[in-house]
From TrEMBL:
One Pfam assignment: Leu_Phe_trans
Name of the protein: Leucyl/phenylalanyl-tRNA--protein transferase
Encoding gene (name): aat
One of the record's GO molecular function terms: leucyl-tRNA--protein transferase activity
Free-text function comment from the UniProt entry: Functions in the N-end rule pathway of protein degradation where it conjugates Leu, Phe and, less efficiently, Met from aminoacyl-tRNAs to the N-termini of proteins containing an N-terminal arginine or lysine.
Entry keyword Acyltransferase: yes
Top-level taxon in the UniProt lineage: Bacteria
Catalyzed reaction equations: N-terminal L-arginyl-[protein] + L-leucyl-tRNA(Leu) = N-terminal L-leucyl-L-arginyl-[protein] + tRNA(Leu) + H(+); L-phenylalanyl-tRNA(Phe) + an N-terminal L-alpha-aminoacyl-[protein] = an N-terminal L-phenylalanyl-L-alpha-aminoacyl-[protein] + tRNA(Phe); N-terminal L-lysyl-[protein] + L-leucyl-tRNA(Leu) = N-terminal L-leucyl-L-lysyl-[protein] + tRNA(Leu) + H(+)
GO BP annotations listed: protein catabolic process
Main localization (coarse): cytoplasm
Keywords: Acyltransferase, Cytoplasm, Transferase
Keyword DNA repair: no
């Protein structure tokens, strides 16, 4: 279906909700080229980064940090996207078209933010697209040490349910930082096979609109819950 040796599989099309959802259902995600006026690039990595829900590595210091935060879902989506798209960040890629497209997906209930709050202040978070059992992570940010990791712990806990074995947490590409958190690479064909299974699942209750916020699950000392998206 795609070039066996190239992550870039298509150029062009639009960022309408239907286009984006069809892309995710077929293993693609968009990124701007970086040149204003250029068409959208669509990627399906030959080696896809995924985070097994039972494989998240949570250090002792991160577990302690989790106790200081409240995790909220979808209470500050635009602010999370804007923080991820801060033009002062190195290798920033979120432009105005991407921002508008994902805000529209959020309005329609397909895109979600997971946020780490402390003392009423948003200090870290991530956002992505949820379709059935797929959560396609797009980007994350932090304003305090480990705050983006805390949000990731919160996301993983919200994806863990009776269907966890078949859910798919996609992080696009692995990096050394993400690998240290438990991200692994899988071949494109394996990813697409897992994607087909995941799409048949219901959305996890923890990402449903109106999900109750709270402390990070699994942050007690006896628990071990174990960019694009992923940097610290």
């Amino acid at each position: 279906m795609y070039d066996a040796d190239d992550d870039l599989v298509a150029i062009g099309a639009d960022l309408a909700p239907g286009t984006l959802l069809s892309a995710y259902r077929n293993g693609l995600f968009p990124m701007p080229s970086g040149t204003p006026g250029d068409p959208v690039y669509w990627f399906s990595p030959v080696h896809r980064g995924v985070l097994p829900l039972d494989g998240l590595v949570v250090s002792r210091s991160l577990r302690r940090a989790c106790r200081d935060y409240e995790i909220r879902v979808d209470t500050a989506f635009a602010e999370v996207v804007d923080a991820c798209g801060d033009p002062t960040r190195p290798q920033g890629w979120i432009d105005a078209d991407i921002r508008a497209a994902y805000l529209r997906l959020h309005e329609l209930g397909w895109a979600h933010s997971v946020e780490a709050w402390r003392d009423g202040e948003l200090l870290g978070g991530l956002y992505g697209v949820a379709i059935g059992g797929l959560f396609a992570g797009e980007s994350m940010f932090h304003r305090a040490r480990d705050a983006s990791k805390v949000a990731l712990v919160g996301l993983v806990e919200r994806l863990r349910d009776d269907h966890a074995a078949d859910r798919l947490l996609d992080v696009q590409w692995s990096t050394p930082h993400l690998a240290s958190l438990g991200v692994v690479e899988v071949p494109r064909a394996t990813y697409l096979a897992r994607l087909r299974r995941a799409l048949r699942l219901p959305l996890p209750a923890g990402l449903a609109r109106g999900a109750v916020p709270g402390a990070v699950p699994g942050a007690d000392p006896g628990a071990d819950p174990g960019r694009a998206i992923g940097e610290e």
